[in-house]
Amino acid sequence: MTLGEYPVRASIGVTDIERSASFYEKVLGLVPASIGPSADIEGGARFYACGRGTMLNVFETPTAGSTRSTVATWYVDDLDAIVAALAEAGAELIRYEGFGQDDRGIGPRAGGGRIAWVEDPDGNTLAIETDD
Q1: How many CA atoms lie within 13 Å of 98's alpha carbon, on the beta-carbon side?
Q2: β partners of residue 126
Q3: Cα distances (angstroms) measured from residue 73 to each of 23, 24, 36, 40, 41
């Protein structure tokens, strides 16, 4: 038996759950499946149901920090439409020097396909990818 046989849930630590919940819900369009405590913080965690039974946990913690690497990735069918919707909702697409991204922030993905990135209010990097 290995962990590869079980579902996995992504968890992202943030410094202010209300500010982050606003971003994840209003900008990314996620809907909380439930709200719970995070350590001693009542209502400090949001659980967002995503596709195919996956879950994203965003939780407040005093040890949260930003990372320069991607912490969660969504695989989508229509990257262009998703990026347009995110931009319309106020997301700022991240642009990296030398990645060949277009003016919308979409670039080629290593190994084929395309990718775009956004950051949450704590600087956590989120990716949106497609195989086309």
Answers
A1: 0
A2: 72, 118
A3: 16, 14, 23, 29, 27
Residues 6+ apart with CB under 8 A from 94: 105, 117, 118, 119, 125
Question: pTM of this prediction?
Answer: 0.91
For the segment 89-107, the average pLDDT, to the nearest whole number, is 96
Q: What pLDDT, in 10s, does the model give residues 32-70?
A: 999 999 988 999 999 999 999 999 999 999 888 767 789
Pull the structure tokens for residue 14. Answer: 């943030």
Q: What is d(CA 58, CA 80) in angstroms, rounded to the nearest whole number?
A: 26
Q: How crowded is the C-beta side of 95, counted as CA atoms within 13 Å? A: 8
Predicted pLDDT at 7: 83
> What residue ranges in 9-121 does DSSP mark as E strands?
10-14, 32-38, 41-49, 55-60, 70-75, 107-108, 114-119
User: What value, to the nearest 5°, has the Cα angle with vertex 90 and ends 84 and 116?
Assistant: 50
CB 132 within 8 A of CB 113: yes
Phi-psi region of 34 (alpha: psi -120 to 50; beta: other; left: phi over 0): beta
